[in-house]
Amino acid sequence: MKTLVTGGAGFIGSHLVERLLAEGHDVTVIDNFTTGRQANLDLADPEGRVRLVRVDVADPEALRPHFEGVEWVFHLAALADIVPSIDHPMLYHRTNVDGTIAVLEAARAAGTLKKLVYVASSSSYGFPDTVPTPEEEPIRPTHPYGLTKALGEQYVLSWAKMYRLPTVSLRLFNVYGLRSRTSGAYGAVFGVFLKQKLDGHPFTVVGDGTQTRDFTYVTDVVNALVTAAASDVSGECFNVGSGHTYSVNRLVELLGGEIVYVPKRPGEPDCTFADTAKIRRVLGWAPKVSFEEGVSTMVENIEMWRDAPLWTVDSIADATRQWFKYLKSEA
């Protein structure tokens, strides 16, 4: 099958590419390496079988030739992180919203699409009223990143209704695993903690560490992506989570090390926890990797984070200044 992955050089995208190659797909990757890394793609494709196209995902004319004959499209290309989205909302809109429309239109024009799977974000729920959070929960993003991902999803679902384009949206919860980001803006807790552990620095725990997250291992996410693509379901959204929620204190316990606390941030829920009943029932998908197993794999491969930035109390305070300026607490 001829398959295209936008953002295929990124963390999740490279794991997806690896899986698709193992299953015999003819894979094209579109990536401009804003956040993706060639090293990720080299690990996923050591034999160089992938056709790599370096174009701007929001450029419709540049995209269209590469969609000819494509049957599966996985749209992962996006700008992530909260603070940069506050600083550059128009850039985030162009990449995450305009880029999604451009991909939809390129897929529609090709006329060969069997399924387009969009990667949405659980951050679009904002502060959910219901935990575990079902797909029916209102979308109430608290920052531009969550808003642009939600808008992208609306286009994906609308194109399924308007143009009968076969699409599915997966709302991912707190994905972690090997190849997760080692540079860039302050954000994902695993990259921060693993570098701190490597350098013998204390873990910078936000608040009191009792906040919980639905940490979902990357191979489970890839399995959900492929399962959704292979299904006959269209015009639906699904949560993808681990089936549990874990405190930051539990993560620190598993990693082992000293702790220093930094102020609790506004605009973040105390708990993220996906209700996965729908994806289990409709697609027959279920997570397989336990939190303990996933963390153990990360620690075994901790050298991957050797060149990651070391975040300290002072540098975190500087990096999150805009966060505290613009975002508000749930109250």
From TrEMBL:
Recorded superkingdom: Bacteria
Pfam families: GDP_Man_Dehyd
InterPro entries in alphabetical order: NAD(P)-bd_dom (IPR016040), NAD(P)-bd_dom_sf (IPR036291)
Ranges for domain NAD(P)-binding: 4-298
Transmembrane stretches, start-end: none
CDD domains: UDP_AE_SDR_e (cd05256)
Protein name: UDP-glucose 4-epimerase
Organism: Tistlia consotensis USBA 355
